[in-house]
TrEMBL record, chains A, B:
Entry-linked InterPro entries: ArchSynthase1/Queuine_TRR, TGT, TGT-like_sf, tRNA_ribo_trans-like
Source organism (scientific name): Holospora obtusa F1
Domain tRNA-guanine(15) transglycosylase-like residues, every copy: 14-393
Protein name: Queuine tRNA-ribosyltransferase
GO molecular function terms noted in the UniProt entry: tRNA-guanosine(34) queuine transglycosylase activity
This protein's UniProt keywords: Glycosyltransferase, Transferase, tRNA processing
Length: 398, 398
């Protein structure tokens, strides 16, 4: 029965659909917020609900170390554990392990040293040291599925190897083949009838690989199509720039089975979301909107860019830490109906940031979550009403 | 017109009244939460509202240093600045300056060294260094009134000298007389017609002194009664124990003009509140309920003490950091209707505390605020219905 996916409408600006889960329906295109340790940092779950949040995505890696999969299973699922009654996703835990091992993409691009000593990859899985107590863990495809079944989210992902950006064609191919073998093992574990935490309502996403290489992307798509996954994740390197991302998406989406929902992992910039949707992506997840909020950033729409002082914004957001907001007694956005813009001024948010009050990050995260949810709703309306050019103009500015 | 105070009922268990302010009425007895830097740490102002919070008390000392009184005056008042439409109080700033200088009472009782070098008291006022940038400030009675008029709370306090606990009779007398002279100067400044931030709706509280000495307490009461203050604050040392506090309250309340509201500064323990109300106190403020929440403590009622494991509680609260809560999938209190108890379990709150997630402190603060507001409502009902013995049994346990 669950989960199920239907497409209502296909357009050159994106497609409209619904993912039906045991915990509610997800209208697509949709953006998922990351609750790394089973909480959206600084925002109560009942507030996330009033902001019309569709889905919360939790992290297998963090939760298997603290509080442990068994504690969450005893509470029911990661949804019941965190008091969230709507749909949930979990990732496989791979991304976090490989980030720890290789460093994140930005570190890599900047050439920061990598701490590879914390990570050993073998055919069996990825061996790493717990960030909590230094104990040794080996995350295998089977363990990732076991933990994700214990966590009991509506949709889960296969474990894949997340390679650094700058590896060669040969390394990308070898890694892709390894990820394919892991995907097969994941599916076998997932389908096992007598698994201790088997959940009848769960769907499994496979993840495509192949980096920036067209023939590898093509092979990976063929592989994914041949396996009975519920959904497809787009993984592996998407290149260095937004332009390269669009090229890679063309490769990764060509021939991909159109009956399955397609998730783009870790992408959260406004323009990239519009571009991804136009290519056919259904869902996204990223820490950007919530992390930005905690660091003083508030997402704003392009009609503010021109009127605002140059120093106000960079990349579609204003930084409330800047001194120019000290006596700015307007809300972040006068047209925004989020709780933060209804009650708080820029001057007040600036004061809270300067005072290092946690209420600041919380209020800015609330604005950014509302912003993203409103934008995704506008996009769905835009596709339904064939007005995506206007919607893009209002949210991207070009 | 505002503020005004009326007493509806006097009983041996406390009195019922109403403080009428320009921003709403305060039913007394009432407990005020401290928004030190113009925010209840970790809780949005709209959440404070849904928890039926009567009053928010902000700190003159912190706000005059950051963002500065002028910024807040430009926004309207400290209430409008923080998006709070209900009644507000500010303290004089004295307590914080003297805490910095002398150390807090608990440090003093423990014999920790005091950092008196940061503080110089003269007839003129208290000279101190800003915690923000090390600049030198002199808080005079006139400056405190000026800043509190700029902040524009409904009720404000005179600057008094907050002496350490262990000073002699002679020192206490000298300090009391100094505070009385400051109170006179405060009142003169407050009544000045052409003050730059004069607010017609503000009321001024005088603060009684005299430490633990009956004759000094008596002199201070006579002094306060002779001056046209709107309300009375009980200041100075209240002794070392709850028993001594009750004795000092007897001295400090005897003969105190019964037409004025009486505020007990910095008291927030459950039993002390019941005892204070029985003596005739109308309002309290204290950081205990909110600070306790941020450190993992949840207030619980006595009916839980007997059923709960011994390790669970100390001083009417449970510490969610304790390992015994790891798999405790019940709410903090099954009979509590606060948002936290409706959604979160002890196991989840334990996990959030262990993960150092700020949502933990926020959720526990919400529970504690709701707890205090519910308790004060029960007390008001208890006085109205002559059932205070039962109410005390339900909330204090004896």
């Amino acid at each position: 029965m669950f989960p199920k996916f239907t497409v209502k409408k296909n357009t050159p600006y994106g497609r409209l659909g619904t993912i039906f889960t045991a915990h509610g329906n997800i209208s697509t295109p949709s953006f998922f917020f990351c609750a790394t340790k089973a909480t959206i940092k600084g925002v109560d779950v009942w507030t996330m609900e009033t902001l019309n949040t569709p889905v919360i995505l939790a992290n297998t890696y963090h939760l298997m170390l603290q509080p442990g999969a068994e504690v969450i299973a005893k509470s029911g699922s990661v949804g019941t554990f965190m008091g969230w009654s709507g749909p949930t996703y979990t990732d496989s835990g791979g991304y976090q392990i490989f980030s720890l091992g290789y460093g994140c993409v930005s570190q890599e691009i900047k050439g920061s040293p990598r701490s590879g000593r914390y990570l050993k990859i073998s055919e069996n899985g990825a061996t790493f040291l717990s960030y909590r107590d230094g104990s040794t863990w080996c995350l295998t495809p089977e363990l990732s599925i076991h933990v994700q079944q214990a966590l009991g989210a509506d949709c889960i992902f296969t474990l894949d190897e997340c390679t650094p950006y700058h590896i060669s064609y040969e390394q990308t191919r070898a890694s892709m083949e390894q990820s394919h073998r892991w995907a097969k093992r994941s599916l076998t574990a997932f389908l096992k009838e007598d698994a201790p935490y088997k959940r009848s309502y769960q769907g499994l996403y496979g993840i495509s690989q192949g980096g920036i290489y067209p023939d590898l992307r093509c092979q990976s798509v063929d592989f994914l199509n041949s396996m009975p996954f519920f959904g497809h994740g787009i993984g592996g390197s998407l290149g260095k720039t937004s332009a390269q991302m669009r090229e890679v998406l063309d490769m990764a989406l060509e021939n991909l089975c159109p009956e399955r929902p397609i998730h783009l992992l870790g992408i959260g910039k406004i323009q990239d979301i519009f571009d991804g949707i136009a290519k056919g992506i259904d869902t996204f997840d990223c820490v950007i909107p919530t992390r930005l909020g905690r660091h003083g950033g508030a997402l704003i729409r392009p009609h503010y860019w021109s009127t605002a002082h140059e120093a106000y914004h960079s990349r579609a957001s204003i930084n409330l830490l800047k001194a120019c907001f000290k006596n700015d007694h307007r809300p972040i956005d006068e047209t925004c109906t989020c709780p933060t813009c209804q009650r708080y001024t820029r001057a007040y948010l600036h004061h809270l940031m300067k005072s290092k009050e946690i209420s600041a990050g919380s209020a800015l995260t609330i604005h950014n979550v509302f912003f993203m949810n409103s934008m995704m709703e506008a996009i769905r309306d835009g596709i339904a009403l064939n007005s995506m050019k206007d919607v893009r103009l209002q949210w991207v500015g070009d």
